[in-house]
Amino acid sequence: MTADSPLSDRLDDDDYPAYTIGRAAEMLGTTPGFLRAIGEARLITPLRSEGGHRRYSRYQLRIAARARELVDKGTPIEAACRIVILEDQLEEAQRINAEYRRAAGRAAADDGSGSASG
Q1: What is this structure's pTM?
Q2: In the list 8, 12, 24, 95, which could disulfide-bond 56, CB 3.0-4.6 Å?
Q3: Helices then strands, each counted (H, E), the chain
Q4: CA atoms within 13 A on the CB side of 18
Q5: pLDDT digits 0-9 by tens, 60-78
Q6: Measuring CA to CA, how many Å separate 102 from each of 75, 86, 90?
């Protein structure tokens, strides 16, 4: 198998659903019930294998780990899921905002570098 094979792509893909519910729970130090609960709260939606089994990606496991941190500190699971969703939305909005600022800065620099005739 070569380095640029589809397997290599999947191993590097944060969104590839590589982990079963049991393995995911083990990695997070929690129970499959916790993962089902955050799925019911719509924090994450695992993909399903052909047999209907839940499969989780590394990205989903990072989100689940953040929810678990909050729950471990005493936050109710529904509230923890809402907090993680809002944190994720805020991060995305900040990323988009930074892109707009960079684009506006480039546009202003381009406008300032043009020839001025008078």
Answers
A1: 0.74
A2: 24
A3: 5, 3
A4: 15
A5: 999 999 999 999 999 999 9
A6: 37, 24, 18
